[in-house]
């Protein structure tokens, strides 16, 4: 059992059971507070009936003209609360905020090409692969492509934003 | 000059600070008064690693007349200042600039932001109002209101708060003049009303047309309205609103809670004394129950809310005997979801003791019997695990035989589950992991009674086995860290804690799990590395959070300003920070206690910040405890938690109030031996330090007795104290010699460490005395000689313990530690056993070795 609410700075002290998961990165203070300062309605926490943190989503709005869109920066659910539709509900909030508050044309996100669980899930939520970003996740021990997945919102009447790009792009070609 | 400036800038941008410096020095000869060149010099000087010189240059620039008003120069200077956390100086810098050019919006804004950085709320208020007058923008008006509101929040309790009414007045006016144009501005208004408990006002404001225009997410607004209705005691409205909300969102737990709580409040309003009311027949209850049943009828597959809501209703209304059948049907419906146990955990406590076993067997009747699809197999396994958790919750009622049988079942279940999970990714947990967790908890139940360390090894072996198949299960890692700590085995604590990848803000909340008292069981170099790690987050807080407060002002997110401020204070006044600072000092002092590191020790102690080490009682009790206790496992009804069993009756994490006092004062006391009484203005008087240490000497043991004795000797020159110090160390030494004949657990190492610590302090004193030719009285000579004897005996004892371990092969050690009447669970393979035992043996040896 759960409920969703705005993420608060205090939650940073109690999201351990989510962030100790290996697929969830823990960023610095500026990262979280920066999002909270600029997009407070895009950062949502799911809390359980016993007050535990279950998962959260963080996002932002960016882009120009018809590329004005909502972006999913992080979506994560603690291992013990998976497969309860939480990710779905969190994504619903983000899409709702994108549509109602920011009036964007579409929502997009990046996902590791190997994260088949997440890719399958996003497809189920109506996202399609718009393009591949080569070597987007690259670090000392890491070199992996990302899929840029998109879902059109009502403002994009002709669904132009999701027509897949034919060729893969390099990270430096990204608009943002 | 222009060309020269560009050249220097290019060098700075390219990171060639040395070359920038020499170019700037040259350029300055020709342009003696150029503040730009001077500020570039300051910047480059700072980056080449001479912050003190750079800050001196900045100080001159700040004091310059006329004030610096060059954009680039200002940026460079403030960057140096920010880097060195001289936030007040940045405020002065921009205050001067904006006074020199009052029409410059940039300087004015920078001045305001620099006030935000230092949290000078009064000046923020005044300056923002000035800005609003000047530039007629309402943004500045809200900055001012926000600063006023925060002054209210931070005002000392008890005194009349003039800030909230003032803020309210201003916001009311803004609203009347239609100047509230964002939801955050409206939210600020709500916060101001809330601070004055004007909840009805909040409801009114949030229900206004303005609110629905500004808040685009309906659910968000609805929640806020409900919250304040609740606080305003508008119980009827809350009931209506939450019912409505539940019809469209039946899984929103908050709505269930607010409905049930309000109904209960209504009942209380109607009846003064509930004891003679037949709750079940009250109309509110009946209506509520009907409502839940109705929702249940309509509920889609995965929707739990109406079912759990019903249980919550029974719980709140005290109808415990009706909860049981609901639990059974909830299990029947949702027993396959991982969170089942957490959903019902708090209701399990209400089940009367004599019904618990029948509940367990009723649940058992609802298992999934036969399946063949893999999906169903997994579901069936999950359901059984939920059942095991409930059974464990009531395990106080099981006999020893039943517990053993239960453990066997759990291990069998785990083994079967591995087959289902063979294709799971390394980042996922195996389906049966919790079986091993419960099995180890059952072993620990027995440990709680017998305190047999063999049992700790058994639990470790099970969890290590589990971790091999489920390499990222952090719960197992945390359990292992605590179990190894209980044994006093340090190496795996390091390995597992590193693999938890604790960083950033997690350092504040989780460090305690592996670092508390770690210096007592690990070689000093190992423990000091581990404990130092935590300090990074407090440094980040100092640097990053003020900038984020500035961002919140920039984006007008007023609701986040008090939130960020609270966050900042929770970190800057955190218990963990106080602990970590002291642990770092402790391990540093101990590792520098040998004569050939005396100079280093002396420098280190000189640099201590008294304000951080000497905290008053009031300061200590105001520290924030952010340590995340949810990492503990509390699955048993009424029983001890996982941490509780290992802590043997003590609290874990401990409050550490006395510890914070002791290890704040010890280094300050030792400092006086070397440097005498400090003359610095903010230095703490040695008498005060002694007073604190004496007040906690019971808790502090030998280390404190030793430090107190020696400090008095150095400051009061009472030479009889040296003798006393020696005899108390000798007494402890004799005691350790008889009580620790073999290293088997944390407590053994702790005793040795206490002795080691005291000897280290005495050794420092010995070094100070040996260097001071004025102190060659017979007592001193005698002290130094006796110290030598003590040290010799200590090393002898340690070497005996070490020798005994060194003579053992891993197999010998294993036989010694593990072979008892009980055999290791079959699941564990011999290689795992060997690895664990070998790690223990090596850790003990390394620790003892480090004491030489
Ligand atoms: C990916 C993740 C967020 C999913 O969270 P969740 O709350 O379990 O997802 P939901 O319950 O809302 O799942 C919605 C649908 O996605 C699919 N799905 C989710 N997890 C799945 C899994 N492990 N295997 C197969 N399908 C899965 C299913 O179709 C599911 O619907 P269903 O349960 O009715 O079959 C979670 O697994 C997670 O936090 N992973 C680690 C972090 C991560 O990878 N984030 C994504 C980065 S972009």
From TrEMBL, chain A:
Cellular component, GO, one term: NatB complex
SUPFAM superfamilies from the UniProt entry: Acyl-CoA N-acyltransferases (Nat)
A GO molecular-function annotation: protein-N-terminal amino-acid acetyltransferase activity
Annotated ranges, domain N-acetyltransferase: 2-154
The keyword NADP belongs to this UniProt entry's keyword annotation: no
Keywords: Acyltransferase, Transferase
A matching Pfam family: Acetyltransf_1
Highest rank taxon of the organism: Eukaryota
Family: Belongs to the acetyltransferase family. ARD1 subfamily.
Protein name: Acyl-CoA N-acyltransferase
Organism, as annotated: Rhizoclosmatium globosum
TrEMBL record, chain B:
InterPro entries found in the cross-reference section: NAA25_NatB_aux_su, TPR-like_helical_dom_sf
GO CC list: NatB complex
Entry superkingdom: Eukaryota
Coiled-coil region: none
UniProt cross-references to Pfam families, sorted A to Z: NatB_MDM20
Signal peptide positions (record): none
Family affiliation: Belongs to the MDM20/NAA25 family.
Protein name: Uncharacterized protein
Lineage, top ranks: Eukaryota, Fungi, Fungi incertae sedis, Chytridiomycota, Chytridiomycota incertae sedis
């Amino acid at each position: 059992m759960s409920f969703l609410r705005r993420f608060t700075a205090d939650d940073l002290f109690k999201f351990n059971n989510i962030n100790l998961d290996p697929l969830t990165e823990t960023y610095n203070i500026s990262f979280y507070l920066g999002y909270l300062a600029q997009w407070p309605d895009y950062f949502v926490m799911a809390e359980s009936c016993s007050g535990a943190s279950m998962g959260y989503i963080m996002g932002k709005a960016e882009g120009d003209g018809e590329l004005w869109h909502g972006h999913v920066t992080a979506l994560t659910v603690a291992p013990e609360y998976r497969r309860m539709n939480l990710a779905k509900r969190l994504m619903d909030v983000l899409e709702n905020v994108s549509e109602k508050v920011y009036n964007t044309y579409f929502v997009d996100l990046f996902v590791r090409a190997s994260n088949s669980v997440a890719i399958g899930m996003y497809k189920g939520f109506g996202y399609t692969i718009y393009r591949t970003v080569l070597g987007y996740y690259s670090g000392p021990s890491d070199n992996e492509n990302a899929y840029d997945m998109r879902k059109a919102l009502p403002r994009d009447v002709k669904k132009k934003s999701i027509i897949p790009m034919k060729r893969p792009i390099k990270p430096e070609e990204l608009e943002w | 000059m222009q060309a020269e400036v560009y050249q220097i800038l290019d060098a700075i941008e390219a990171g060639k600070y040395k070359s920038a410096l020499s170019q700037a020095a040259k350029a300055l000869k020709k342009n003696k008064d150029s503040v730009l060149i001077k500020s570039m010099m300051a910047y480059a000087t700072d980056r080449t690693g001479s912050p003190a010189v750079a800050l001196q240059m900045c100080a001159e620039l700040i004091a310059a007349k006329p004030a610096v008003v060059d954009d680039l120069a200002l940026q460079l200077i403030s960057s140096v200042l920010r880097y060195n956390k001289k936030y007040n100086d940045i405020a002065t810098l921009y205050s001067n600039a904006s006074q020199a050019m009052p029409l410059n919006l940039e300087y004015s804004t920078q001045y305001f932001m620099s006030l935000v950085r230092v949290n000078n709320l009064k000046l923020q208020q005044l300056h923002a109002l000035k800005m609003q007058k000047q530039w007629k923008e309402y943004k500045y008006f809200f900055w001012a209101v926000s600063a006023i509101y925060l002054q209210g929040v931070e005002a000392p309790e008890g005194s009349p708060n003039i800030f909230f009414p003032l803020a309210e007045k201003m916001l009311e006016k803004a609203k009347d003049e239609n100047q509230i144009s964002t939801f955050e501005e409206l939210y600020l208004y709500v916060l101001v009303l809330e601070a004055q408990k004007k909840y009805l006002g909040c409801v009114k404001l949030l229900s206004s047309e303005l609110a629905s225009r500004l808040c685009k997410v309906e659910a968000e607004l609805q929640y806020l309205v409900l919250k304040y209705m609740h606080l305003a005691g508008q119980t009827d409205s809350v009931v209506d609103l939450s019912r409505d909300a539940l019809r469209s969102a039946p899984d929103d737990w908050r709505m269930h809670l607010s409905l049930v709580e309000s109904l209960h409040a209504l009942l209380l309003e109607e009846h003064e004394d509930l004891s003679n009311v037949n709750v079940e027949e009250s109309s509110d209850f009946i209506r509520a129950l009907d409502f839940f049943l109705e929702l249940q009828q309509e509920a889609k597959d995965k929707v739990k809310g109406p079912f759990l809501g019903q249980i919550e209703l029974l719980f709140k209304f005290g109808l415990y005997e009706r909860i049981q059948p609901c639990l059974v049907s909830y299990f029947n419906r949702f027993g396959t979801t991982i969170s089942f146990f957490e959903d019902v955990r708090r209701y399990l406590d209400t089940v009367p003791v004599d019904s618990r076993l029948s509940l367990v067997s009723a649940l058992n009747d609802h298992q999934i019997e036969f399946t063949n699809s893999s999906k169903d197999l997994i579901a069936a396994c999950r359901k059984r695990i939920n059942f095991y958790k409930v059974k464990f919750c009531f395990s106080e009622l099981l006999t020893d035989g039943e517990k053993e049988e239960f453990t066997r079942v759990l291990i069998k279940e785990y083994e079967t589950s591995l087959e289902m999970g063979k294709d799971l990714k390394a980042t996922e947990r195996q389906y049966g992991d919790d079986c091993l967790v419960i099995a180890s908890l059952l072993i620990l139940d027995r440990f709680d009674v017998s305190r047999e360390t063999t049992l700790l090894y058994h639990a470790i072996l099970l969890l290590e086995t589990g971790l091999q198949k489920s390499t990222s299960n952090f719960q197992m890692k945390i359990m292992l860290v605590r179990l190894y700590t209980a044994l006093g085995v340090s190496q795996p604590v390091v390995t597992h804690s590193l693999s938890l990848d604790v960083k950033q803000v997690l350092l504040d909340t989780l460090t305690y799990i592996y670092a508390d008292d770690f210096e007592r069981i690990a070689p000093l170099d190992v423990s000091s590395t581990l404990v130092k790690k935590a300090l990074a987050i407090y440094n980040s807080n100092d640097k990053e959070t003020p900038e984020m407060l500035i961002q919140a002002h920039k984006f007008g997110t007023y609701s986040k300003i008090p939130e960020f401020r609270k966050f900042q204070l929770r970190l800057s006044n955190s218990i963990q920070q106080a602990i970590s600072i002291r642990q770092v000092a402790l391990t540093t002092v101990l590792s520098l206690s040998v004569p050939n590191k005396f100079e280093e020790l002396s420098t280190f102690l000189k640099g201590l910040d008294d304000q951080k080490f000497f905290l008053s009682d009031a300061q200590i009790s105001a520290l924030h405890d952010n340590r995340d206790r949810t990492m503990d496992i509390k699955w048993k009804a009424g029983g001890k938690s996982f941490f509780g069993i290992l802590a043997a009756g003590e609290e874990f994490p401990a409050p550490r109030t006395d510890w914070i006092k002791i290890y704040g004062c010890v280094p300050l006391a030792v400092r006086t031996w070397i440097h005498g009484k400090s003359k610095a203005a903010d230095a703490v008087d040695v008498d005060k330090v002694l007073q604190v240490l004496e007040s906690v000497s019971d808790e502090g043991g030998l280390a404190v007795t030793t430090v107190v004795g020696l400090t008095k000797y150095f400051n009061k020159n009472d030479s009889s104290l040296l003798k006393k110090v020696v005899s108390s160390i000798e007494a402890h030494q004799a005691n350790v010699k008889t009580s620790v004949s073999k290293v088997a657990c944390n407590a053994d190492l702790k005793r040795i460490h206490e002795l080691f610590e005291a000897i280290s302090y005495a050794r420092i004193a010995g070094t100070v005395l040996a260097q001071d030719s004025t102190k060659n009285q017979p007592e001193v000579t005698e002290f130094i000689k006796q110290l030598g004897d003590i040290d010799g005996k200590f090393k002898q004892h340690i070497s005996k313990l070490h020798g005994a371990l060194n003579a053992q092969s891993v197999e010998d050690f294993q036989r010694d530690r593990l072979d008892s009447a009980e055999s290791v669970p079959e699941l564990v393979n011999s290689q795992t056993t060997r690895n664990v035992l070998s790690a223990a043996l090596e850790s003990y040896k390394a620790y003892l070795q480090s004491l030489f």
